[in-house]
Amino acid sequence: MFWLQPADFDAIRLSFKVACAATLLATPLGIGVAYLLVHTRIPGKSLIEGIVNLPLVLPPVVIGYLLLVLFGRRGWIGSWLLEYDIQVIFTLTGAIVASAVVGFPLLVRSIRLGMESVDPAYRQVARTLGASGWDAFFTVTLPLSGKAVFAGMTLMFARSLGEFGATIILAGNIPGVTQTIPLAIYEYTSSPGGDRMALSLCLVSIALSFMVLLVSGAAGKTLDRR
Predict the structure, then answer these.
(1) Is the pLDDT of residue 1 over 60?
(2) Which of 38, 43, 132, 166 could be disulfide-bonded to 63 (CB atoms 3.0-4.6 Å)?
């Protein structure tokens, strides 16, 4: 990879860091939301589902602007975080938040499909044998939905690697701080003579995405055998 600059390696490293952090932080919440949508009867479930899926239909730039309003110094969340000296905008944390919000619907949809495919009779048997609702979830529903959970994590990880619009609005394009692979490609295409470097990073992005697909496929086959 002799054609890459030191700043490009920083962008690759930050992309992995953002994708891993966003996926790991969002997965427990994604499991909880999927369980809420599948196994509970609460008023306003359709509204919750609509809010969860909203990032799928909104332009990423709109999502980034809404997050900027929320996490800005005068925003509802940002003003509260400033009391604890926590800043989100134009930081790596902002890039993680943006990626998590954009990829969250893919995570929830995959986990929800997995939970819906689990035969309700298994849960009923567990409850009949004395298991509580939580015990039935952790010993029956969640293990049988394991493949779907991993698939959702893979989709979210891949989506986070390619996130651009929301990230550049909330976190900015700061080399070595918030500049991920898509942002570095954007900067190269906006600079004279940067086409070669942009193409190099595009090839890296393609290779990384292909590796994610290979790992996902191999893990899926392993889970099927188990």
Answers:
(1) no
(2) 166
